[in-house]
Structure formats: structure tokens, C-alpha cells
Amino acid sequence: MFQADRREFPSLASQLEVHPEEQDHPRLVEVPDPTRQDMQFPDIWLRDNCLCQDCFMPQTLSRLPQLWNNLDTSVRVLRQEVDVEQQVLYIEWSDGHFSQYPYSWLRERDFSKANRERYLSDFYRPEQQLWSGRDFEQIRRVFNYQELLTDDYELQKWLHQLAVFGVALVKEAPLQMDVLRHLCNRVGFMRRTTYGDEFSVRAQPGASNYAYLAAPLPLHTDMPYFEYLPGVTLLHTLEQSASPGGVNLLTDAFYVADILRERYPEQFRVLSQTPVDWADIGRDGDLQFHNIWRAPVINLDAEGRCVRINHSIPQRDSHFSVPLEHVRPWYEAMATFVRLAQEHSCSFKTTPGDVLTFNNLRLVHGRTGYDDTDRNVRHILGAFIDWDIVYSRLRVLRQANVLPQLTHP
Question: Where is this region: Disordered (predicted)?
């Protein structure tokens, strides 16, 4: 694609000298850019990302592995030159290789702090905005079901809302059993679990799950006993209880975790470092299961940011595989977490045709109890989509349709 060899390589005038004192420091290639601040790139990164046909496969947009069969980490730039008119950087390497890099490609990958932050918070994953229950009316957004099925811009806005705030309400969906499948297929595909592709939530005798009772359902995340936790929950209201109960409860648990980190740092440490045994044992139809996953309530990434909340009182196992002295501090920290989650929750009641969609890794959800009789039925159909599929669809929509950059409300 960007083949460079000695025959087509331009006359290279700038010679780079190597100084012994530079050996322990990043060796940087300075790239002047008349339209913006000059760019800098580590030399070994440029060599690793050569775009010539021997190093790069255009049809898969990925590097070829040959360089890594015997990687020379001491490789360095012998000469470099910029073609200002063509906007191309040319490099001759110490291993005899020649490379060229279009400026458009370099600008997207510039190592400047501003460019890295833009890529991570904009293109990689939209930056999340945390909220308390008192802010729910300001951050909530409503989408029309039919528009999501036919309008790519509306679809992008829905997925963006889910990525940033973790919750969105879809209205005017038909009272049919295939609504969630249509929505999931519009994004990618459903995530199947031990409860099937879709699951019905309604009071039933001999319930195999606490959610199938009419009793109050405390705040929780769905299925914390899975290592690969379903990412987005979709709940379609087919029938709603006419009793005062059946009210949805939602809390941004990342917001709660931030409060803990600021006000109760020791309890935050306990909840982010103490592994908990989460389990689901039972049968659904002909399938018998015994799922277990051990993980803290608050899960952090390498940079200390919240990436997952695990919480479900019925599905926290009686096994607690930690040292004795860790048990009481965990209970004390967990009591604070539950209290804060309740204090910062919001409440609302869906109506038939509503589809409540939310981030199952971030939000804890529940509902109040309700009266269940033959004439007062509450029936919710649920399904899941994985976040990988949502983020993929969001990026494709932005690139393929050249849709306007969305801003946070």
C-alpha cells in the first residue's frame, strides 16, 4: 500500500546522529507539521507500524508478523525526510528497511497528550458522565422504537447516550415478543445466557430466580456470577401492574464508588480489593447450572477507574473465600455502599411499550414490590447485548455515515 524502496526513496538530507547518553531514553522522531504543533513518535513504534507491503496487510488493516520473528529492539533511524507537498514522512532504518508514512495517518496517531485524550474519550469509548438520582430528569433521554430501527443517526444517539450516561428509555414499541430481538439485531446480536436469548420476568410459582417474585427487588447488577458479564440490559414492558408497586429503581453505582473513594477511602479499598463469591445454582427448563465467579464489588482498570460493579444480595454465595480478619471490614464497607446506592437512586414506572435500556456493568437496578393477581399482572421481557458489540456499532456508524459529532447534554 505504501511501499517504499531505494528506487523511489527521495534524496534524504537529514542525518540523525546517535549519542551514547540517549540509549536509556526514548528515541523520538520529530515530524514538522505546518498546520499544527509538530509531532513526535518513538522510533521503534514507527518501525513496528511500517505501512509497506512487507509489513502491513491493507485488506485486514493489520501488521504482518515477520518483523516480530526476530525483533531488533536496537533498530534506529539512519535518515529521514519530509515531502511537504505530498505530506509524507520517509525513513531509512538501520536494518536496511525503508518506510513512508502519510501525514493523515500520523496525525491520527500523534502521541501528544491532547491527541491521546481525544482518541480515548471520543473514538475509543465516549467519556462517561456520572450522575446522582436527583439529576436523573436532566440526563434521561427518550427514543422512539421505530426511529431506532430505520434512522442511523437516532441509533447512534441512543448508543451514545448509553455509553455516556448508562441509561436510555425507548418508547412506543409494539407489545410483541420480538421487539428486543429487532433492537439487538439493529446493533449486532443478543447475548445468550443460561436463561436463554430472552427471559420473561413475571411472578410465577416455584420461581428459579428471585426476580420472578412479586416481592421488592433490591438494587443489583444482573448476573455478577459470570466472568463475562452481560453489558447492556434491555427490559421491555409488556404488561404493568396497576398497583402502586412495580416502580423501577436505578442508581449510577460508579457515582457511588466515587463518593466512597473521596469520603471513605478505606472502605473503597476494601470493596475494590476483596474478592467476593457470586453464584447462581438452579435449573431453567431442561438446563441445570451452577455458575460461580469471584470478583470484588468495585472493579478497577489499570488506571484506577471503575469498569464494573458486582452486586446482588440473593446471588452472593455463602462461601466467602477470604481471611477471617477481612470479613467484618467488608460487611461494614458494603453497608455503606448499599446505603449510598439507595440514597442516590431514582424511581419511575414504565408503561406498556417502554423499553428500559441501561449499562449493567455500571448501574444497579431494582423495583418495588407489587400486588400480583389474575387481573393485575406485571410482565417484563428482558435481553442483553455485550458492550463490545455496542461500541463496535457506534464506531461503524460514526465512520460509515459521517454523522455529526455528538455532544453531551
Answer: 1-33
